[in-house]
Amino acid sequence: MTPSAVTAGGLVLDIAGALILASGLVLKTVEEALDEASPRYDFNASLDASLASQTADAQVGAAVLVAGFLVQGAAALGWHEASWWATIAAVVAAGAAAAGAWMFLTRRWRPMRIRDALFHRLRMSQLGVWWPALAAFGALLAVQSKRDDETVEAFAVRIIGQRRWDVLTANVDPNVLRVYTIPRSELRGTNEYWAAHPEEVDPSAPTI
Fold first, then answer.
1. Which residues pair with 183 in a beta bridge?
2. 100, 79, 101, 76: which is closest to 90 by C-alpha?
3. Three-state secondary-structure class, residue 151
4. CA 134, CA 122: separation in Å to the nearest integer?
5. From CA 59, how far away is CA 193, in angstroms rounded?
6. Each residue of 148-171: pLDDT tens digit?
7. How far is CA 81 from CA 5, 78, 84, in A?
8. Local structure of 140: helix, strand or coil
9. pTM for the complete prediction?
10. HSE of 200, CA atoms in CB hemisphere, 13 A
11. Burial of 171 (0-12, 13-18, 19+ CB in 10 A)
């Protein structure tokens, strides 16, 4: 390839890397920014997830940038071939690599980093905060409870994995953890319980 062909491919990677690095900020809406900045009780899942996503963006974006610089370095070291087809091939290959990096980021790496943030948030929080945190992060990850009789434990395992759940609960009294190991439809006080037991009156329901 000619130096210009290789350089063109490197430039495509550099531009893609810069866009990936900035994507979390560039694509963020005003509503999302305000949601992250709004105070919450004990934790803000939107802010936690945003910070985790920005870390993922920076890692993948930096990797693509480095790849672009390496390709341009190859041109500087004398990778030669004079052809327009070579230039087109270099640009297409770089574009395909950038698209692959974006798919990896959005489908794999960002969700993984958000799950990491959830795990560490749970480790830092009291047991009573676990379900609100799981529900909030589950919504951000598009992971919803499958059914009313699914336990919080089963829901948590689907999000963070069995190994991390075991680590999280290793030193927790089983009697205290019981509320997370029975279906929410059998846990009095939850919306699922009142829906499953219409014959009972929800004390929090408004009266006429």
1. 151
2. 79
3. strand
4. 8
5. 43
6. 678 889 999 999 999 999 999 998
7. 8, 10, 9
8. helix
9. 0.81
10. 15
11. exposed
